[in-house]
Each structure stands twice: as structure tokens, then as C-alpha cells.
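User: what does the whole thing look like in 3D?
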Amino acid sequence: MHELSIAMNIIEIAAEEKDKAGGGAIQSVELEVGTLSGVVVDALQFALEVSVKGTVLEHAKIDIHPVEATASCNRCGLSFPVGDLFTSCPHCQSFDTRLVSGGELRFRSFILE
Amino acid sequence: MCDTCGCGQPDQSFRIQKPQNPSTHTHAHEHTHSHGDVAHSHTHEHSHEHPHLHEAGQDAGHAHQFHDASHEHPHGTQIMIGQDLLAKNNLLAERNRGFFEARHITAINLVSSPGSGKTSLLEETILALRQEIAFFIIEGDQQTMLDADRIHKTGVPVIQINTGNGCHLDAVMIQKAVKELDPSDHSMLLIENVGNLVCPSLFDLGETRRVVIMSTTEGEDKPLKYPNMFRTSHLCVINKTDLLPYVDFQIDKAIDYARQVNPHLEFMEVSVKSGKGLENWYKWLRQNLS
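Assistant: Here's the predicted 3D structure for the full assembly of 403 residues, as C-alpha cells:
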């Protein structure tokens, strides 16, 4: 359900940035969603479909680019790809890691006609 | 814009009420449109193709150009934004946090699945510590005043946020509720989030500490199934330990799983029903007072 809140944020950012850029129709939008961001891409797509009506994104093509997750070990510094938030460091086995990428929820760009 | 159904109306769909004062500050609005219209799909009706230059090799070409103002595309101008989708909530959460810090208010965000015993824990805590700590309570639920009514009986100031269809509290709701509740300096603000282990993890409220509560009637693998929540919490309270002889829940396993997700997480085993372990919880609250 939080995908609907996020869809609202996307529409809001698009409306603000379009005004800043001097108006025009938004042709397409690029978003980045990390695989461990906590947002389900399908749910976000659905949320956007039902919420863009009557907004600046009504006729825009929306591209969602997944960002693969990488963690960095806080103990030995190794960076390694992860598919979840509970994978230990393959070098020193520590669970004390931080997400370097894969947590993104980002409005990358849009194209104005 | 309406956060619940996306109808484009400016007001929020959540409602903030104090017990026995149902007319207080309502943010609900009328939905005059048909929801059937809203649900129809319209984003794939684009009949003409836009030959985007970046579709062939966008990562090579554009991935590191967030700070460029704009550049030309065959059918338009690309504007680079690079903004976090949660930036507004995060910004407002920091404002809340600054307000709490300046007023020496300790704000605790309590998150869990439904039925873990959050409200019971709050009731016991208030009754035990009300003489030494000034409590203010925010209750978050989709519907009803039931939890706020329970807390109201203890005599401490409480406000209920009904999120409607929303699955989490956010920083705007807290900002508005705090204005109504007006917590005093050096007080402790306990925020009971909507019972949900998924969505609330993404929304910073500006809290001082986040506490995740799990109970022995749940599976011990909850931390692995809902890692975001355990990753972002400071303390994990395991409640209903009085039921341990009757359930299959293995505390050590649960703690082990949670530590895999968040090695810095603190743990506390309590039974709100029997009172066992609550002294540790009270001690933790005292230690975290601003």
C-alpha cells in the first residue's frame, strides 16, 4: 500500500519540476527503484496507473529502472552483491554490513516536449 | 493531493481526533468522483513512439549526469532531477526531530504486526511511570478511536490518527498531531504506529528511537521476512514471554535472525501480562529521556 504514497510523491515532484522548467507536456519519466528499497515495482506501477489521471503524468511513459543491491562490510570493507538484507560478508562472515546501492527510490529525470 | 485514492483533492484523507472530542480538527474530505473511473488504466494508451536516444545505452550515457540542467532529445528536453522519492517525508521528519530536540521531547516510534501487544504495553508503561515521566501519546490506526479511548482512561493526553486506507503514519501526520497534542518540554511522546511490519519502515517520523515489538505467538522468522523494519529499529521488545511454555517460539532463534539483519539491535524480553521483564523496558525508557 505504501506504493500509493510513493506514486503521489512522484506526481508531486513531476508537477513541481515541470513548473520550474517552464511548463510543457511531460513525455516520459525515469525512476530508479533499488531491489532492496522496500518498494515492489509491480505495485508501484499499478499505483501509478490508478493515480496519474488528471495529473501532469497522465500521458507520460513511465520507465522504472531497477538498481541491483550491493553491500559493504563494516568490518573488513569488502563490497559484494546481495539479494537480501541478511547476507553475511563472504570474506569475514560479519553481518555488520551497510547497503551501498539497492535502497534507491529516485526520480531520475523526465523529458519535456 | 489525496494520498489514499489519488483523486487530486488537496486535503489529506487522514483524521486526527482527541477522545471525547469528535469534532476536533478533521482532515477528511468528500470524494465526489466515482472510484470506477479512477481504476481504469490509461498509462499504456500512448500510441506514438518516442525514439529516446538513451534507451539503447542509457546507463553509459546518462547515469552520472544528474547535475546537468538539461539536454536535447529528438522530441523534447531531458531534465535531470535525481531527487529521492521520500525526500519530502524525510525533510519534514527532520523538522519534527529538530522540534523534539529543542523541546527536549523524546519521541519513540513503536512498530509491530497487529496484535503484538503495543497498546497493552503502553497502558502498563503509563500506569507504572506516569509519576516520573510526562507522557503524550499518538495512536495510529486505519479506523476507530478504540486505542485512544483505552489510553484516555489512563488520564494522559492522547490523540488518535486514523489513516483511513493508509497503511502507515508519516511525518506530516505527526507534525499535525503534535500541533494538536502540544507535548510539554522534557516529556516523552510515544507514537503507536499502524500495526504493519512493512510500510512504516520506510517512513521516518522524526522519532528519537524506533522500537519494534514482536510476540511469542508469531513466527521467530519475522526478522528475516520483514527485514527493513528490524534493520531500521534500535530496540526489539519480545512480548508475551508468559506464553513460551505453550508455543513453539524459540527466542534464541528469533534474536539470532534479527541480529543477522541488524547486528546493532538491542533486545528485551517482557510479558506485559505477568509484568516480567518490564523493569528493563522502564530502565531503557529512562535512559533515553532527553
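In plain terms: Chain B is about 30% helix and 20% strand. The CA atoms of residues 120 and 215 of chain B lie 12 Å apart.
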